[in-house]
Design a protein that fits this description.
Bound molecules: S-adenosyl-L-homocysteine
Largest sheet: 5 strands, parallel
Strand order of the largest sheet: 3-2-4-1-5
CATH topology of the largest domain: Methyltransferase, Cobalt-precorrin-4 Transmethylase, Domain 2
CATH class of the largest domain: Alpha Beta
Number of helices: 7
Structural class: alpha/beta
Helix content: 25-40%
CATH architecture of the largest domain: 2-Layer Sandwich
Length: 250
């Protein structure tokens, strides 16, 4: 039997935001590998072994998945959102590059998912409708000085911004620092969106201005979207619409 390794994105939380391709791969899997809360989203069934592990062991998990695939298993590695966005796909390719040559011959494919920033943006309108960037605010895998540099340059370039992992457990003061930098660099009242647990039963969405944004408005289940200077807010009864126009005038 020829094995395979599929790296799949489960979307932001709701079952109907899982793509049919991912659902098919899960239905055919012999083994599902991933971080505990993501594997918990997979229904157990006969013939399927679930392997969940802690978040800090991404490379070990990737190697384990590759070993099982080379023994003939149909392995699906799951991430939330999209597997290529701050998630397992890179860890698998890092393991492949450093691993034994036969891993390169394996049938490996990446199946995209709906990433959190797109699910969050859709809730309020189109805040990412013009140029934007995505930054992971966790300093687990990079120095904080690099995050600061990217924040300043992104603000200077007037990108809208999407922040993943806004509050890292190891460094809770980081997000406060990020907000200070944005206030200094932008100096205006552009909209900031705090979208928590989007598409789950715990979902909350809050829109504030940049000076009103407070560190405790975000946690590890929150996506923070910061508008560009051109981002507009349309007030109405209920949650306002936020959008960034398609064009910038010269
Ligand atoms: N691969 C994932 C991101 C992993 S990083 C993706 O593409 O979405 C984890 C971060 O994603 C969290 O700290 C949070 O900032 C964000 N996130 C994931 N799911 C979310 C959801 N349902 N609602 C809001 N933010 C979410």
């Amino acid at each position: 039997m020829s094995g395979s390794l599929t790296i799949a994105g489960l979307g932001p939380g709701a079952d109907d935001l899982i793509t049919p391709q991912v659902a098919d791969a899960l239905a055919e899997a012999t083994d599902v590998v991933g971080y505990i809360p993501y594997v918990a989203r997979i229904a157990p069934r006969l013939g399927l072994t679930l392997h969940s592990s802690d978040n800090r062991v991404e490379l070990d998990r990737a190697r384990h998945a590759l070993e099982m695939a080379s023994k003939g298993h149909r392995v699906v590695v799951v991430s939330s959102g999209d597997p290529g966005v701050f998630a397992m796909a890179s860890a698998v390719f890092e393991a492949v590059e450093a691993g034994p040559p036969h891993w390169r011959a394996l049938n490996i494919q990446v199946l995209p998912g709906i990433t959190a920033m797109l699910a969050a943006a859709a809730r309020v309108g189109a805040p990412l409708g013009h140029d934007f960037c995505a930054i992971n605010l966790s300093d687990n895998l990079k120095p904080w000085a690099l995050i600061e540099k990217r924040l300043r340059l992104a603000a200077e370039a007037d990108f809208a911004m999407a922040f993943y992992n806004p509050r890292s457990r190891a460094r809770p003061e980081g997000f406060a620092r990020a907000l200070d930098i944005l206030n200094e660099t932008c100096g205006d009242t552009r909209p900031v969106i705090f979208a928590r647990a989007v598409s789950t039963v715990d979902e909350t969405v809050r829109i504030v201005t940049l000076p009103e944004a407070r560190p405790d408005m975000a946690d590890m289940r929150t996506m923070v979207l910061v508008g560009s200077a051109a981002t507009r807010l349309i007030p109405r009864t209920g949650t306002a619409f936020v959008y960034t126009p398609r064009s910038v005038s010269v």
